[in-house]
Every structure is written in structure tokens, then in C-alpha cells.
Amino acid sequence: IRVKRHPDDLDFSGICPFHGDCLEGLVSGPTFEARTGKKGQDVPLDDHVWDIMAYYVAQAALDTTLMMRPGK
Predict the structure, then answer these.
(1) DSSP assignment string, 35-62
(2) Cβ atoms of residues 15 and 31 within 8 Å
(3) Helix, strand, coil distribution of the chain in percent, nearest 5
(4) DSSP assignment, residue 20?
(5) CB 15 within 8 A of CB 25
(6) What is residue 68's three-state secondary structure?
(7) 2: β partners
(8) pLDDT of residue 65
(9) Average pLDDT by consecutive 10-residue portion of the chain (72 residues)?
(10) Contact 26, 56 (CB under 8 A)
(11) Cα–Cα–Cα angle for 63, 66, 69, nearest 5°?
(12) In this predicted structure, what is the pLDDT of residue 24?
């Protein structure tokens, strides 16, 4: 799933070797290490990276809803 880039995340190229801007390349578990040098479980909840990740996950949730329930 392609997502719109968060304004504070334009310098991160993503980890997907095929798409870069795809959901998996921007939000999968290994992206925490690529972004912060830490595993997700070690990133404090007040770190801005969580806001960036939530931005992408929200887009995916909306896209999925629209695919499954286009009449709503």
C-alpha cells in the first residue's frame, strides 16, 4: 500500500528494496531500527517517531475500510 509521506519523514528512504514509500517500507518493525537505531519496544512512547508511524497506519486503515466497504 502506497502512503502519503509525513512532512517530518521526507528524509527517510524506507527499507523496502522495491518501493521505498510503501507501507511495509515505512512502518514495519525493522523500520524502528533503521530510523532510531533501536527496536520498537525500546523506543519511548513520547518519541515523535510514533506519531509518524501512526500517520501511516491510519492511512492504511482508511484505505482498507474504503476497499472493503466502498458504499459506506
Answers:
(1) HHSS-GGGS-TTSTHHHHHHHHHHHHHH
(2) yes
(3) 55, 5, 45
(4) S
(5) yes
(6) helix
(7) 22
(8) 87
(9) 92 89 91 92 95 95 85 66
(10) yes
(11) 145
(12) 92
Can you give the length of the chain in residues? 72
Q: How far is Cα 59 from Cα 17, in angstroms, rounded to an integer?
A: 21
CB 39 within 8 A of CB 10: no
Phi, psi of 42 (to 5 degrees): -100, 0
Measured distance CA(45)–CA(1) in Å, rounded? 25
Nearest-angstrom CA–CA distance, 5 and 8: 8
Residue type for position 66: L
Supply 72's cell numbers. 459506506
Cell of 56: 501511516
Q: What is the largest CA-CA distance in the chain?
A: 43
Rg (CA), the chain: 13
Q: Which pLDDT does position 72 carry in this prediction?
A: 62
